[in-house]
Amino acid sequence: MALLAGKTAHAENRAAWRARFADCRARSAALATPLLPEDQVVQSMPDVSPTKWHLAHVTWFWETFLLGPHLAGYRVFDPAYDYLFNSYYEAVGPRHPRPARGLLSRPGVAEIARYRDHVTQAMDRLIAGVDGMTFRELAPVIALGLAHEEQHQELILMDIKHVFAQNPLKPAYTAPAPHAARTAPPLEWRDFAGGLIEIGHEGDGFAFDNEGPRHKVWLEPFRLATRLVTNGEYLAFVADGGYRRPEFWLSDGWAAVNASGWEAPLYWQRPAGKIDGVDGWQEFTLSGIAPLDPASPVVHVSHYEADAFARWAGRRLPSEAEWETAAADLPVSGNFLDRGLLHPQGATSSADCDQVDSCPPHPALDKARLRLANPKQPSPPSGEEGRVRGAQAPRGEEEASVVSAASAPALLQMFGDCWEWTQSAYAPYPGFHAVAGAIGEYNGKFMSGQMVLKGGCAVTPAGHMRASYRNFFPAAARWCFGGIRLAEDG
Amino acid sequence: MALLAGKTAHAENRAAWRARFADCRARSAALATPLLPEDQVVQSMPDVSPTKWHLAHVTWFWETFLLGPHLAGYRVFDPAYDYLFNSYYEAVGPRHPRPARGLLSRPGVAEIARYRDHVTQAMDRLIAGVDGMTFRELAPVIALGLAHEEQHQELILMDIKHVFAQNPLKPAYTAPAPHAARTAPPLEWRDFAGGLIEIGHEGDGFAFDNEGPRHKVWLEPFRLATRLVTNGEYLAFVADGGYRRPEFWLSDGWAAVNASGWEAPLYWQRPAGKIDGVDGWQEFTLSGIAPLDPASPVVHVSHYEADAFARWAGRRLPSEAEWETAAADLPVSGNFLDRGLLHPQGATSSADCDQVDSCPPHPALDKARLRLANPKQPSPPSGEEGRVRGAQAPRGEEEASVVSAASAPALLQMFGDCWEWTQSAYAPYPGFHAVAGAIGEYNGKFMSGQMVLKGGCAVTPAGHMRASYRNFFPAAARWCFGGIRLAEDG
Amino acid sequence: MALLAGKTAHAENRAAWRARFADCRARSAALATPLLPEDQVVQSMPDVSPTKWHLAHVTWFWETFLLGPHLAGYRVFDPAYDYLFNSYYEAVGPRHPRPARGLLSRPGVAEIARYRDHVTQAMDRLIAGVDGMTFRELAPVIALGLAHEEQHQELILMDIKHVFAQNPLKPAYTAPAPHAARTAPPLEWRDFAGGLIEIGHEGDGFAFDNEGPRHKVWLEPFRLATRLVTNGEYLAFVADGGYRRPEFWLSDGWAAVNASGWEAPLYWQRPAGKIDGVDGWQEFTLSGIAPLDPASPVVHVSHYEADAFARWAGRRLPSEAEWETAAADLPVSGNFLDRGLLHPQGATSSADCDQVDSCPPHPALDKARLRLANPKQPSPPSGEEGRVRGAQAPRGEEEASVVSAASAPALLQMFGDCWEWTQSAYAPYPGFHAVAGAIGEYNGKFMSGQMVLKGGCAVTPAGHMRASYRNFFPAAARWCFGGIRLAEDG
Amino acid sequence: MALLAGKTAHAENRAAWRARFADCRARSAALATPLLPEDQVVQSMPDVSPTKWHLAHVTWFWETFLLGPHLAGYRVFDPAYDYLFNSYYEAVGPRHPRPARGLLSRPGVAEIARYRDHVTQAMDRLIAGVDGMTFRELAPVIALGLAHEEQHQELILMDIKHVFAQNPLKPAYTAPAPHAARTAPPLEWRDFAGGLIEIGHEGDGFAFDNEGPRHKVWLEPFRLATRLVTNGEYLAFVADGGYRRPEFWLSDGWAAVNASGWEAPLYWQRPAGKIDGVDGWQEFTLSGIAPLDPASPVVHVSHYEADAFARWAGRRLPSEAEWETAAADLPVSGNFLDRGLLHPQGATSSADCDQVDSCPPHPALDKARLRLANPKQPSPPSGEEGRVRGAQAPRGEEEASVVSAASAPALLQMFGDCWEWTQSAYAPYPGFHAVAGAIGEYNGKFMSGQMVLKGGCAVTPAGHMRASYRNFFPAAARWCFGGIRLAEDG
Hints:
homotetramer; alpha+beta; 11 helices; disordered N terminus
């Protein structure tokens, strides 16, 4: 099946499939536990869906693509749900308009819980009871359903954060984690030789159709920053007039800045009467309002802001192929949903790396060296403000020293923390063809007008991520936990 | 106090005030009983407010205008509520934007119930305990607060109807009332001599500031229809191409028809596959979807639709002064909220009148006669379609016969059932001045761009209404239970 | 014919009709003389029409309502013009969308001149040649066509002013008039006794259908200011924070202030670097940019601004009936289009009155007295700013002295200078019925959502005006030469 | 200079530069010759600019970037033009808002002609008189200015076509060309082996900065259609419900279809009463309305439509790299502006090729073969409608026959006729850096949210085009002469 590269289904191990399915379903329900029924109704903008809609929609997916066609005697829970909880599958039929999801108070939270139970139990019967040959056919669709429900788990948290942020009471979804003050490690640069490389999914595991076919790409030499851009570094951009100087911005980005009145990342706020500086800024998180931590990664910036910051810093964003090449052999571990922090954390310096992020020397490294103090493409001077920037960002440079290739700096935070904006438009890989039918609408039809993000974030379910994973959002999207990793030509 | 005409406060009778206050507060809470917490969050358009917002806003009114200034030692429940639950009082300070009320899941329903209890108890202490001289000062504000909360009781029902109507599941707020099939009584005409009359509030009872000063108005002779226009009559207008023929419409109304795609009253629907005709139409009510009853009054039309219907029928809408003159001596009884029907009902013919609506011969009547079959201003012919109209509407004409003045037809449905659109723009009466301060914002600042409606409707609290009451909505508003009474020159 | 009150047509005097027709047509063409072809194409907002559209539309009116039906053998100039140059007559057929008039470069200015000539000559043949009985039928329509073309003459100037104002080059339509520095006469108050009066057109002359029927209205005693509010007085309102203080504004007006960023009348501007004060402000006129003259009437304010100013000044706007009663016996003379100034002028004090405005003692005056210094309804205090207002506005008061009734102050500027906003919504008079057919769409269908203005302005053709004339614009309209006359209860 | 690849300036030959400059300026002026002054003012949508704005803006470019800084004693024609005629250069200062260009009647056409003469003469003095060393510095900017003015020559025609299309009179810009009925040659397929190729500008000639750096790209084997898709083929897509079937469309494209009501290419129209079929459709061209020619290329489709058509046909659009590789060695000749046809023309079969399009066997060809009748990715069946498509499109297949590699089919229409949509988002090439300053805003800041088009069209100046040229428009743009060439995997 074109959706899946390799053999995803060890059809014999039904118990493992049932357990994984049960775990996934339980995690979705658990995410709603801290919420009132009232919270689960609200749609704060068209891109956001109510919690209870997410919980019902993923359930509809199981019912529509697995239970209806494949479980003998299955009773549809409520025929009206086909209209209410179809997200965008044109082939399945008409559907409730997306911007109107927040108008639906019914079915209520309790009714949707009943719907979930009905479907969970039926799916368990299907997985347990279907014959082996059929199961081998269904396993890829079940794997897709699990990946789909994991995506919506992430969205539940992205979306409720946006909902709560609209409320002047600034409710907290969860208690704040204990926060150890920390200094960001120096921003260093890791070199890659480029050449004719391959990207795209390969191997036995599950992948979405958009991750293939695996294919060749030519890359010029490049460098990646060893960690994400921090709030402190981004604040220097803000203080340098970053949001008032068109020379850093793509034309569409500058239009967005002016049309939307952007002055800082989405969830930053400055209480009236506070001085302008690090101490003056706060950040809304899923644990409520917190002082802005200068060592933590900047998050909730659009592609436009990420691109403008990079231009201001005299660098650029990585391409998808560059990022994927650099990440290909790294272990997929980091600050994901399972850690329960629900917010990006400051990078741990490479000295501490193996304890925390398990980041070994990069195997693909061939001519590692630190980035020296003279970046190739200096950013335009800006009078006095230039001094501020020169003094503060990028921080790593002043502390750089010559190191041998053997001690090439490790890439930190590649997985988890923030979705990393690339400079690559979301487009089909050579030879990509969507499968026929409704499931073929999953990814292909969105290959227009969006940018690729890589690596997952602090609300992505652990186990959901891989180097070839292609997330995508419009360039103006800010609520999706987007952050910044710098790159430059080698 | 300028807000109130006459002496509203029998300050001595504190027990009666406490009981009336308690009843009013209890009725608000009771209106939310059939609703889930999820239902109480949704804002389906900017004009609609969530149920729990209404419940909190009326509570904020008591806290802000009575408890804060006048109850010694009163503890404000939550200072943030001043921002959240101020509706439009510019003098009180900034407030949460109206179209964003539906984004607030917190405070939740339970928390707002605690807020209500806190304020209800404190108000009871205030009413019971304040000294007599102060009470006489406060009584008009308390009376205003009660009238204000009653207005929001009506709005809770108008608004939840709109919320439920957006939901494809079409939930019912209440069980359907048993419905006795009934034929509308003939539409007859009652004559009024006009002359130099007086309108506006007078006497001891409470009234809003906008109902005064009482003042003289000159009226030419006119006639009023004895009952509201029915669904059946309105259907004839629809069937005659009413929504496709510009000649019946005000210019702004025709623009609204085309911009909004109006084809029928707000809550009418025609299931796919049903034939076009009375049987084909259904109506969404607070008891769910019901077949359209041709004998019941048409409701949920805009001023534009009411005006276009009247023009099609060769008549016009009454002016506010005409309506008020006709209603001045009628008892204020009818199908109000206390009957629990929550929907307009077909008129009872005048023969049954005294049992049901207590409508005695109109005391102001001086030259009553029935409207004969030749209306003064015939509507333009419309080919074949004219036949339909000629056959069906207005019904009264064909059945008219000469009657003596002594048996002048009674005016039915003047109070309750539907708010009746007038042709009068909402404007200050001669000599009107808003009082200074926040409470002065109650009515005066809306005296622009809206039309007057009279008489109350099926979701208006009984006891809230009087002939001088001036309701007002923009001419395009349809969710506010507006109906049609025809008038014509005498 | 219902459009016309009285006998408009002295059918015998064809020469006079031909001359009046020729004069009217020539004046339209002359108004375009100072313009380039390029100027005549632009539509700067949906309410504005291009000059050449006006010139063609009035011509289409003659062709459609007179020549086509009544001139034997008339050849339609171009059948496509019926679609292009119909303004809003639904009964005539589909038409080019109003907001898209500025997209039509063709027919060009020269072609439209040919169209005009073709129609002018044919109309002259019709007027000269038709038999007497027919002419008596046509004369009212010809009178209507003349009034209609005069209305568009006014609109040509209103509209081109708006077009030129959008241009950073601020082109002048005409050379500036020599301007004699002048002080505004004191703002005095003239009393009227009210009572049961009559308004609406009567007599032999032409009038639009909306000016009738003449009918009775009851008026309480009232006073009118003797002249228009000046720029200097309005500037005191601006300086007192008038545009930042919601307490003066209707709710819709305050929304307009904030949505549109209003800070001053439409064509005021303050060059960067200029100090804030009279000297700092400039005004764009049809003669280009000029320093703001404090003694000239404020013009290009919306109804909302006029109403807010009046509230700030502790007064109100007059009702239409009050204004018409006061104007009924005044000579219809003033600063109209024929003076060529194209801008309101400072009032001449009543001492100079007869030379300039021919304003005799008002014949309806019965208990004239000057307004003393204590207005009945003081405006809300505003701290320090109140001092400024107290000191400056309304100016007349401080200079008032007791005068005898014999020397009751004359009403200045009632006709010409500025259209005067009333507090009256534009609604049908009792007994009004639009005539059937396309011509019936002329006025009646706009009787919703607009306010009445009286008296004409500096770009209104002389001879077009009368006391019963009812102009109407939406409350937010600012490009229509609206000004302010204050009133108060007597 | 980074803007220019190679040595563009043969500084010694001033006479040639002067002649080329004079020719370019004269061509711009000549393009306005068929237009009235009225035509040159209109802006029919924000993306369109008035003719006279184009004529002034290109002149401003010379004045701002050449004359002001480099011609001693140059007198700026009018300082206000800097504000009026800056298009988007943020670094140059504030500018008149783009959507408001159509509000400027002044400066008029005659004044802009004076401005042009002033600048043309000064530029001629500059080119003729500046010293050799300076000229070598200026030559690249002059070359850029010429390319810039040529771009606006193309835009003048694209834009006036859109302006005229809004006019119900459907004016013609030029007389129709004699049209020889013609059958489209069969649509054949040419194979390319792919591999590690290079794209981007190289060599001595002028190029825009966005065309470099030249860089390596890996291509899989692919095929290109030998000619553009015809109206006849596109009509089969329309007739097959192409605009009503979501399965062919990108998600954003389907949203555009529904939001904008697209049913056919931009300038197609079907007169009322005409039958549905080839005969029923007409097309608006710069020569007015013409019957739709089934053998001519479809033009004025958006990227979304091109993509949907390709999906319907079971193919895809080419990538930019594929297109450029295929075009690299073809002569740059075709139906450009100099032919004066101003509309795409039906392809001439390869037999006639050398006479008309000079298309030799493609030098890069290595394994040419015809596309057989079984496309790899069949489009979804559509019941009866499928029959229509099967019978009609793509036409070439049924007529295909086996040919030897030696007679590999020639690529027709690669240059001229229609801008060819690619599947490539407009993004920077590896190593691209915009130059500092205002001129650096020329291309780089638009590298977001747009798609690349290749090859030029019937209104592109001859000599302006090359294989590496990168045009770009948003995916929804339809007025820009976009057409369709199919591709598929090899």
